[in-house]
Amino acid sequence: MTAAGLKSTPGGPLRGTVRAPGDKSISHRSMILGALASGTTTVEGLLEGADVLATAQAMRSFGARVEQEGGGRWRIEGQGGFVEPLDVVDCGNAGTGVRLIMGAAAGFPLCATFTGDNSLRGRPMSRVLDPLARMGATWLGRDKGRLPLTLKGGNLRGLSYKLPMASAQVKSAVLLAGLHAEGGVEVIEPEATRDHTERMLRAFGAEVIVEDKGGVRHIRLPAGQKLTGTHVAVPGDPSSAAFPLVAGLIVPGSEVTVEGVMLNELRTGLFTTLREMGADLVISNVRESSGEQVGDITARYSPDMKGVLVPPERAPAMIDEYPILAVAAAFATGETIMRGVGEMRVKESDRIALTAAGLEACGVDVEEEPEGFIVRGTGQAPRGGTMVETHGDHRIAMSHLVLGMAAQAPVSIDEPGMIATSFPGFADMMRGLGGTIEEA
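The structure assignment produced for this chain is given below.
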């Protein structure tokens, strides 16, 4: 990507088969758990985006040997724990990375100062720091735990913690801290969130006990856990697969297949919702890879999609996909109501506000609410013909570029460089399918 803006132009059908980048959540966790473990961890299919590369560098700062071997293959030599970093740990734009790393680091008697880019420094970290402080960690930083901040860990006590919000990042931070807490930890999860940390802890040799008590998940990590290096095959990221798939649904005559997509039921809310809207979305070749179910997903042009009410309880399974769902909704007929998604306001940007503003600039009828928004589609292609301000948010950028491929007139975005944080090669992939994306 260059510093210039990008423009997508409506054109002919999109056709072809592609593979989504490696899952971002599992890529972050493979680096962190590999560094915490004793021995060698090998990873294939790692997402080599800027966020994950920042986490890899952070693991080097904490004493692990991390080597890139080419073709998405990496090797991590862990020492069974973290050492105190000699310099500030810069996590770039990686919100998942910094929150999970702070949890892991809290378990060791060290001081570490964390920072990030302008976007990350504006995002509150208190939701993670609060339970870590209850376990005995201390920190010094700005209001609401905003970066830069210094964390002091070690001598943690056990904790039973009920999540005040549906957040896999908070859950994971507590579990990673609990690896070195006296008495272990329990996380009580009223609303199920992505369970990659639980699955991967088991793959690295830890005992994780998950019980359903009256519809509430209790995740317990007993004390005294030791992690051992292992092999991780990273499946395709469903959040990234969403962009070429939605493009296939809205560009006339298209048929797009994305291979090897993770089908974990806690990550597939978007696909369920699109099918409820009437999308021609077919999942095939379902198989298992490194403890996760994966499959190939084919999207065919679907001109008769209808608006739906998205159940608020589905939000944790698709929280990153609402911007691209809103694009699909702009081409559907009727109202698509998305509520219970206030979490979107504290992502890389205020994604509710930016999604609504971008769609409105493209001629779409959007009503913004405090905890969600409503898109009123007409069944026709939106006007387009505008420049969308992304505020450096990669998902806002990619969503509006997809919209521009099927709008009446081109759509431009102002900050394409941030797309590389989660989807390096996005523009090249879409061009390979037949899309037109060029410098604005």
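Interim note for the steering committee: The mean pLDDT is 95. The chain has 13 helices and 24 strands.
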